[in-house]
Amino acid sequence: MNKNVLIVDDEKEIVELIDLYLRDKGYTIEKAFNGLDALEIIKNKSIDLAIVDIMIPGIDGYSLIKEIRMISNIPIIIVSAKIEGIDKILGLNIGADDYITKPFDPLELLARVNALFRRIYFLEDEEKSREIEVGDLVLDKSRGSISKRGKELLLTFKEFKLLEAFMENKNKVLTKKSLFEKVWNEEYLYDDNLIMVHISNLRDKIEDDNKNPKYIKTIRGIGYRFEDEKSKRK
Fold it and tell me: Where is each Response regulatory domain found (predicted)?
């Protein structure tokens, strides 16, 4: 596997439990028990994915994620005892890709880590075009990057996968169910807030005016459509 995972939690037992399950599957593990040490690891070592608790000393998990998002688009999974919906929405809003509440099943966490890595690294023999261009946006699938007017944008993994689904299906209406199953690779359970938060964050990054979006159009009661004005005029 040879992927480096950072575990950030002030509960040593939790860290050791996650370490046990991930190391058994071939992951290399870095550990931090506070936010400041975690940030130093992120800045100085090659980390492929971070698992972050919210209530940690030094700087809290929310602040840590904000700092990470300023320098990296690595996948981030929050594992927290905070179970309120507002906590989950806040975590996703600031850049987390997934949110698991404590107590958790280590096998579920392992499955989510594996799923994120499977969807990040593209197959070398993939037949689809590596680059998709719509309007001012260019999505490079081989590099996992997106640029707007030549300037690279920093997207989370889930935001990138959402944009990829949109750009591959430009001018088509995509239901919330189809988007959820494409991006989260799970059965849709009517978690509208999860999709809406990611759509809102994506609009903030790709639209000139997120209140009057040029690309991502809401189709009320159905889902969304990603518009390519150039192709529509042909």
Answer: 4-117
User: Of 222, 215, 111, 117, whose CA–CA distance to 171 is shortest?
Assistant: 215
CA distance 210 to 212: 5
- pLDDT per position as a tens digit, 96-149: 989 999 999 999 999 999 988 877 654 434 444 578 999 999 998 877 789 999
Boundaries of domain holding 209: 131-233
- Whether residue 14 sits in one domain with residue 102: yes
Cβ density class 10-45: b for 16+ within 10 Å, e for less: eeeebbebbbeebeeeebebbbbbbbebbbebbeee
Q: Quote the DSSP letter at residue 54.
A: S
Closest CA to 103 of 63, 53, 58, 158: 53
Residue 80 bridge partners (DSSP): 101
Q: What is the CA radius of gyration of the chain?
A: 18
pLDDT tens for 25-76 read 999 999 999 999 999 999 999 999 999 999 999 999 999 999 999 888 899 9
pLDDT at 232 > cutoff 80: no
Structural domain ending residue among the three candidates 120, 142, 168: 120
Is position 126 within any domain? Answer: no
DSSP 221: T
